[in-house]
Structure formats: C-alpha cells, structure tokens
Amino acid sequence: MRKIPGILVVDNNVTLAGGGNVKILIDGKTTEYVDIKPVMKDLLASDIKKVDVIN
Predict the structure, then answer these.
(1) Does a structural domain hold residue 46?
(2) Are 36 and 26 spatial neighbours (Cβ–Cβ below 8 Å)?
(3) How far is CA 10 from CA 7, 14, 41, 49, in A?
(4) Within-domain flag for 11
(5) Structural domain count of the chain
(6) Per-residue pLDDT of the chain (55 residues; tens, 9 = 90+)
(7) Which CA distances in Å does 37 have to 3, 12, 21?
(8) 1 with 40: CB under 8 angstroms?
C-alpha cells in the first residue's frame, strides 16, 4: 500500500493524501466492511494483482 500514489500509511492506518474517505478494492473485492489492518498484514504483495483506490 505504501507504493500506491496518493496513499499514506501511518501506524497501519490507510488514508488518502489530502484527506477524504478512501475505498480500497483488492483484486476487485471491496474492503469497505473489513478491518484493513489484519488484511494487509496477512496478504503478500505477490498475491495481489490489482489495487483500486476510490475517493
């Protein structure tokens, strides 16, 4: 996540640079109803094909 332009990861919190709400899709699946912190710890970068960031 740290390599995605416009995304800030501070203390395992994911935010959009400049504020605002962020909706993250990982391989087309929403993370809207999921705690993103444990998901990011468990997923390997090599297992992720596509990340979409929607504000």
Answers:
(1) yes
(2) no
(3) 10, 7, 14, 23
(4) no
(5) 1
(6) 677 777 777 776 777 777 667 777 888 888 777 777 787 778 888 988 988 887 7
(7) 16, 6, 16
(8) yes
Reading the block at residue 4, the tokens are 């995605």
Query: What is the domain range of residue 35?
Result: 23-55
Contact 43, 37 (CB under 8 A): no
In angstroms, rounded to a whole number, what is the distance separating the alpha carbons of residues 6 and 35? 20
Token pair, residue 50, equals: 């596509």
Distance CA 37, CA 33 (A): 12
Alpha carbon 24 to its chain centroid, in Å, reads 5
